[in-house]
Amino acid sequence: MPTNNISVAEPDVTSSNHYSVHLDWSSSLLQFKYNILNETERIYTITQQSEGHVEQEDGWKDVYMGYGEHTVVMDLNPSTEYMFRLRFHRSDDDYTYWSPPVKAITCKEPFYGENLHKAVHRQKISEIVDVLKSGNITVDVTDNHGLSALMNAAKRGQPEIMKVLLSYNASISCKDEAGKTALMHACIYGQLSTVKILCKNGALYEDYDLGGTTPLHYAIDSCNCDLIEWMIGDGANVNIQDKNAGWTPLMRCASLHGNKLVAYTLIHCKADIDVRDINGKTCLMIAVVNGHLQLVELLLEYNANVTIYNTSGRTAYQIAVSLERRTIIECMKKYMKKKGIKHV
Questions:
Q1: Of 143, 167, 187, 233, which sees the most CB atoms within 10 A?
Q2: What Gene Ontology cellular-component terms does the record carry (predicted)?
Q3: pLDDT tens per residue across span 137-179
Q4: What's the topology of domain 12-106?
């Protein structure tokens, strides 16, 4: 029987996704071999693809040529209709007509973590909801920097977006690679509105990152006095010490920027001025080392103890002398004279 007189069944679409289609023509090939009365002959197959319905032959392109019985057509576009057909060859000049085309539609491209983070960055709540509703990703998936969507929304001051993420069970306690929580990120950037939401939903003040630092310590970095005062009023321990140097938030202030308003806020909230770190240093000593004259003046105004010795056996005044902090030395001399304290 001439091959071109034999009808050929279309290939079967066994599976597909957003970028590929799996075609199988084993049944069609078996029927063809039965028709030519030769079940052992090797048959060469050409499979073609077109995008959508085409009327012209040049709209088709080869996607498979060989002796197999199936193939996976890759690199397709999502949400797109494709047509596939095949024909069998016994030789270069002995082959069938093309089979009827079979239709396959690739599905919509699934959402990935990148889609969620882009939607959060653009502040598109509807997009965020679409991504999370798809069920393809978890709400706590991290970006290239190891931050969850909740962490990014917290540090950017996006309370409405945070509420959406929390409604999809975003983790409050999730930590990045440095051990920082969303609350810590919000504190670093001084975001009072997002700190309030996190604390309302159970975020912990007595939590430490890998460096041993707490949320209140990070709030000091932001210099947002309203944030600092609110956190302490909400239950944050004003005298909590980090796990690295044993610094309180007031000591961190003295070490970093020496902001007088931040220090005043802490003192007003009952910060202990004379707490010592693991090296026996007080806040006054740390302020002296870092040359923060205004902070030294404030601490003396609130009667910081100038007679305390650190583990090296030196007082704040002696440290000032050794570092040649002339303005601080004069300031401390006046204070000690006023208080009747000998130079220590």
A1: 187
A2: nucleus
A3: 899 999 989 999 999 999 999 999 999 999 999 999 999 999 9
A4: Immunoglobulin-like (2.60.40)
